[in-house]
Amino acid sequence: MVAVLSVQFGGALAATLLPLVGVLGSVLLRIVLAALLLLALVRPRWRGRSRADWITVAGFAAALTAMNICFYASLERLPIGVAVTIEFLGPLLLAAATSRRGRDALAVLLALLGVLFISQALTVPWAQMDLVGIALAAAAGGFWAAYIVLSGRTGARFEGLDGMAIALTIGAVVLVPLGVLDAGTALLDGEVLLRGLGIALLSSAIPYSLELLALRRLSAGTFGVLLSLEPAAAALAGLLVLSQTLASLQVAGMAMVVLASIAVLGRRGRGT
User: Fold this and answer.
1) 93-129 pLDDT, tens per residue?
2) Running DSSP on this structure, what letter comes out for residue 202?
3) Reported confidence tier of residue 92, pLDDT bands at 50, 70, 90
4) What residues have CB less than 8 Å from 15, skipping those under 6 apart?
5) Helix count (H) and strand count (E) of the chain?
6) pTM
7) Which residues contact 236 (CB under 8 A, 6 or more apart)?
8) How far is CA 228 from CA 4, 114, 179, 258, 269, in A?
9) What angle do CA 137, 143, 148 make, to 5 degrees?
């Protein structure tokens, strides 16, 4: 639960950084600082890796980086609770796609209806909806699904957190020129660096470590149920950190997605 809350409060903190350094600058700070923390703690082994190892971890880095860019871009347009709920369709659809149970298909339909509610597609004219923000959140969900698949493959080839540390390093190297061009010297501001460090800790270092410990003690089903609370945790973070509120119909839609996620992920867990 602490990991779930940490990720979402990290996302809310990231929303406060976006006006200062933009999307690419914010993602750069998160990934670079998280990479430095993990490199210092993990000290991954770089030599002796096969070509297949590098292809796998590079794909994992690409999915991780693209997921963060799309999600942070959606935060510029949508409340964090809405963005996370839409993004959550990615792992939900991935888990349901590998299932042959009719109940999972019904859960996906419930989640899709919930997304219609939370996106206000049924109550607000399309001309007034932020379709770009919704598309960005959905794209983040797609990359999240790819991240889950590639995370499992990376974990099978790299011991401990070596794969994560190397993937973050690759993402950081690729993002440095893009982030610097986008944000410039604002990246060196003391307040910006402090917020970036907070995001790196809350969104990466703390939850990754806690989830690793939790998975040693919890079943995959229990872990999946707790993971399914992330949209609700995001709404709470949005309210407390950003003063974002949701309409009653949006809250109902979020509850539908959470229930659908519990039904599907409660059996399978994050590693599906």
Assistant:
1) 887 887 767 787 888 888 889 888 888 877 777 777 8
2) I
3) confident
4) 75, 80, 241, 242
5) 12, 0
6) 0.88
7) 5, 8
8) 9, 14, 32, 6, 9
9) 125
